[in-house]
Amino acid sequence: xxxxxxxxxxxxxxxxxxxxxxxxxxxxxxxxxxxxxxxxxxxxxxxxxxxxxxxxxxxxxxxxxxxxxxxxxxxxxxxxxxxxxxxxxxxxxxxxxxxxxxxxxxxxxxxxxxxxxxxxxxxxxxxxxxxxxxxxxxxxxxxxxxxxxxxxxxxxxxxxxxxxxxxxxxxxxxxxxxxxxxxxxxxxxxxxxxxxxxxxxxxxxxxxxxxxxxxxxxxxxxxxxxxxxxxxxxxxxxxxxxxxxxxxxxxxxxxxxxxxxxxxxxxxxxxxxxxxxxxxxxxxxxxxxxxxxxxxxxxxxxxxxxxxxxxxxxxxxxxxxxxxxxxxxxxxxxxxxxxxxxxxxxxxxxxxxxxxxxxxxxxxxxxxxxxxxxxxxxxxxxxxxxxxxxxxxxxxxxxxxxxxxxxxxxxxxxxxxxxxxxxxxxxxxxxxxxxxxxxxxxxxxxxxxxxxxxxxxxxxxxxxxxxxxxxxxxxxxxxxxxxxxxxxxxxxxxxxxxxxxxxxxxxxxxxxxxxxxxxxxxxxxxxxxxxxxxxxxxxxxxxxxxxxxxxxxxxxxxxxxxxxxxxxxxxxxxxxxxxxxxxxxxxxxxxxxxxxxxxxxxxxxxxxxxxxxxxxxxxxxxxxxxxxxxxxxxxxxxxxxxxxxxxxxxxxxxx
Length: 655
Prior knowledge:
Blueprint: H1 14-18, E1 59-63, E2 69-72, E3 86-89, H2 90-93, H3 98-109, E4 119-124, H4 130-143, E5 148-152, H5 159-168, E6 176-180, E7 192-198, H6 207-217, E8 222-225, E9 238-243, E10 250-257, H7 261-270, H8 273-281, E11 287-290, H9 296-306, E12 314-315, H10 336-341, E13 356-360, E14 367-371, E15 374-376, H11 378-387, H12 393-397, E16 403-407, H13 413-421, E17 425-428, H14 432-439, E18 452-456, E19 460-463, H15 471-485, H16 497-508, E20 510-521, H17 523-542, E21 551-552, E22 558-564, E23 567-568, E24 575-576, E25 581-585, E26 590-596, E27 603-613, H18 618-621, H19 625-640, H20 642-646, E28 653-654
Parallel strand pairs: 1-9, 4-5, 4-6, 5-10, 11-12, 11-13, 16-17, 16-18
Antiparallel strand pairs: 2-8, 3-7, 6-7, 9-10, 13-14, 14-15, 18-19, 20-27, 20-28, 21-22, 22-25, 23-24, 25-26, 26-27
Helix pairs in contact: 3-4, 3-6, 8-15, 11-13
């Protein structure tokens, strides 16, 4: 039987009180839809709900056997994690035993004893199947000796918040976290689902672990689960404690926590919220944020609401299990409504566009920044934030930046900032785990590189405050930059996003940049494109061409190098190869082609095109990016033969 009883555990939260956020009541509704499940309808926790005074934690005690059931199973093909975990169609995860197999393989791959008596974080972005998956993982965690699982209310935690909870809650006692998300991919029964593991530092697992998970998934014969454990009511914040007999010692606990509490407290410690309130109170300042129906919404409402932003400026901020039927990827194609509102696709109804616009993806780790009629490329965004490190309070308190890093496909804009500031610059493969290694270098006997600022051209920006990219953090950086530029600016003369970026170009030069994405391409066709460029590289070198004797191509481009990017980690000395084919030109221009590992079916072919314009020529600096890049784009399409080999006349997305 089930009995409920109330116990009290007061937790002071003075910082949240300052923000006007009371613990124990939701900042906003976080429910993402009805009772979806993977294998059956969700069972509600039986027994009565007992109230608690403000600031107290409810405790529900359930008498249930801790008996472990071992279920026979067999391997599923293709449970190989990609750049950001395992992503497949939802229908694949719906197969009986599919999720369980992967979790068992994961738990078996962790160091011996790591889970015994540990605290584990389990939550996700609220997409279809999220809540049911949480229930299954909790029951499997119990079978593997986990003492406590932290779950965000309604099963929700953004990916940055999950990293924060792992690192910060109760001093960082969690051993890691299972994050249920396919990030910027669509959600729903006919769309995508995903799962990844973040380790004790709050960052994604390294390849050595994910490779072992895959290897074990090919050999699995059984999984362990406490099948009799009832489902937890994830809408009830509090401690759900399970005992073998009434009054006995708990054998397992699921604590449902306020999903915004730890993250909001961290942001309040990093930024000057009083300065941001002053900026946002200006009559000539306006902000709009698009949550894209993802998990970013509740965090945006908590933070921006506390800063005085009106609810009507926070768009699509109620999480939905299918992201409102849209594609929660913050770019100009999928965030078209925001682009229109900001005047990027014509004059919006209702007068002038807002000064600052932003969007986040499904799990809130990616961001898009736009100004009034002005789009900021992710590469420029990273460079501008780096150049304004002195305007970001927590960096100033720590003595400023110690290092910068970018993924290889990201433009070299931040390289020029690093050079001027005298900072080391690291060029890594795509994947946030590589940045995490740099951030923790001092723990592994290397140099202390934190505070470190880093980013990827795929709308990911972050720093060493957590070990994930962080969409809302990036938006707060930009708001802080505007606050810095407008401390003494008279009303009506506010310095906006375009002015900030233009000033940056005049100082550092401009990296014209675009990315062409061809999504869901036949995998064989995608590989043929890569092989074509590899063969071109062999011929190039065989003919004696190189940096000292470049090959002259159409429109006067002199090709100096063709290679495949390889990375030797300066922290753990691991090597990662075949990370994209690079065509490097004598004038500093680049064409990069790589296959993305974040899709659920087929392959995504990404072509990156970059041309550098030094400062000094105002006309050239302010040229239209499409016009400036057109000859190089034409050359990239010709050399890759992407249209001929994929049958696609145009890319799915142009950034």
